[in-house]
Amino acid sequence: MEHLDIVLQNVRGMLNETVSIADKIPAGYTPTWAESLWLSLFDGRNELLTFTALAFLMHEFVYFGRYLPFLVCDYIPALQKYKIQDNKPVTREMKWRCLRSLMFSHFIIEGPLMLGFLPLAKLAGIRTTEMPLPGWTEMAMQIAVFFVLEDFWHYWIHRLFHWGPLYRRVHKIHHEFSAPFGMTAEY
Q1: Are 61 and 177 in contact (CB under 8 A)?
Q2: Residue 187 pLDDT class (50, 70, 90 cuts)
Q3: How many other C-beta atoms are found inside a 10 Å radius of the C-beta of residue 110?
Q4: Considering the entire predicted model, what is its pTM?
Q5: Backbone angles phi, psi at 149, to 5 degrees
Q6: pLDDT reported for residue 61
Q7: What is the largest CA-CA distance in the chain?
Q8: Strands, E, within the chain: which ranges?
Q9: Are 80 and 179 in contact (CB under 8 A)?
């Protein structure tokens, strides 16, 4: 509980601050082109809200971008023979129902939860706007550790959602489609 209080205090404090590039660059340090571009996204803006918006937009771009080619394939008759569950059609109504649910989930649940990432990253020592930014090896290590931790977290939370009361009240909708399609990954 103590760690949660620290994160919440950091969030409250971060909501009242704006970033000044001049304060982020150490004396005598010349930022690289990429660092300058990155910092320009935050200059004069609230770091927490800007970082959250960038993370949210990246999530939406990757999530729906990786699905679009498969959506197009669904409408090409010659590719229908390659469907694994070709006897279970996915209707347009099913896709719209899934999209509406995802938009609610992304904007009302995931978006606000993303506000907690930056304070946690700062507590873990991850530099986001402090110069110099991490080098490629440090970034690769942080990303690898993040993937392992996120996968561990996702697995156990998913298992928890299969517990009786949570399954019936929350998670059952996730298993609604007997023939899943790309967009249902977070459904």
Answers
A1: no
A2: low
A3: 17
A4: 0.79
A5: -65, -40
A6: 95
A7: 66
A8: none
A9: no
Of residues 134, 135, 130, 132, the one with CA closest to residue 20 = 130
Give the pair of three-digit tokens for residue 24: 């982020």
The answer to whether residues 177 and 90 touch, using CB atoms and an 8 Å cutoff, is yes
Residue type, 172: K
Identity of residue 54: L
120 three-class SS: helix
- Asked whether 62 and 33 are in contact (CB, 8 A), the reply is no
Q: Read off the pLDDT of residues 29-67 as tens digits, 9 standing for 90 and up.
A: 999 999 999 999 999 999 999 999 999 999 999 999 998
Long-range contacts of 109-113 (CB under 8 A, 24+ apart): 110/56, 110/59, 111/52, 111/56
Structure token digits, residue 149: 């931790």
Q: Degrees (nearest 5) of the Cα angle 116, 17, 36?
A: 90
Under DSSP, the state recorded for 128 is: S
User: Which residues contact residue 65 at a Cβ distance below 8 angstroms, ignoring those fewer than 6 apart?
Assistant: none
Residue 120 CB-half CA count within 13 A: 9
Note if the bond before 132 is cis, omega within 30 degrees: yes
Cβ atoms of residues 38 and 25 within 8 Å: no
Tokens of 168: 């019936």
Q: Would you state the structure tokens that stand for residue 43, as one six-digit string? A: 């200059």
Residue 14 tokens read as 């971060």
**Model pLDDT for residues 120-175, shown as the tens digit of each residue:** 888 888 888 888 988 899 989 988 988 888 899 889 988 998 898 888 887 877 77
